[in-house]
């Protein structure tokens, strides 16, 4: 599959990067994500979907940074669904599916807020994508931390990334003979075309599918199932899971990374000091996040001292 080509000019003013913020503990992630998009001179804004659970102090920080927000209703399936205790952070991620309702935009790139953008990736706004399809990178099915409740077929020989021998190798297209993980996406970066009928159909599926109770990764499993046969793999570097550094060293290249994803429960803003025993390379990647936070912080501290104080209360800035 050819790479998305960069357009000679903006496809439309009605395109946006979109993320979700439901609580102050992820505010720093959102602000750094916005800072990164500006730093790489993206043509498109970051729009933050917020829910009623987000306090006014956090909203005010966003407003003073001139970050667009869109109030959405929290989405939660009525059928029984439970998460492992250390995956409780996924409880709000169903609401990411509200991105399909943002019909004021022709194209959005949905991003998790535990990411940093290292290179401009506006070409995703112009890639060829049927109206009822999405594009995303594959999951990494290696399960390097040996998390017990992860799917039993998540092992290196079943991982789509294992088939890649070079940083610019094209992602494999799923076939009927592919291992199941080849048909699964990671929802950190999702390219989509908002549509009211599509959004309604997705919500209906969420509320009626008997498989909801089985899903380990809420929105991610939902998207993999709903768009089976209708999602296009994009290169790993649009959603560079930090674990790929160790799990797939022949594929990893810092030069190629567009967007780095801080997967797992431990986020860089939870401690400026990388915990002992952390995987190789994670300390360097955490440093990348803190460098951007510090650059952003200088601006916020000058322009919005109250907001800066609130922001500092949401991170562990101690050395």
UniProtKB/TrEMBL annotation:
Name the domain of life.
Eukaryota
- InterPro entries, from UniProt? Glyco_trans_8 (IPR002495), GNT1/Glycosyltrans_8 (IPR050587), Nucleotide-diphossugar_trans (IPR029044)
* Keyword match Transferase: yes
Q: Which GO terms describe its molecular function?
A: glycosyltransferase activity
In Swiss-Prot or TrEMBL terms, this protein is called Nucleotide-diphospho-sugar transferase
* Organism the protein comes from: Crepidotus variabilis
Q: Which UniProt keywords apply?
A: Transferase
UniProt xrefs under Pfam families? Glyco_transf_8
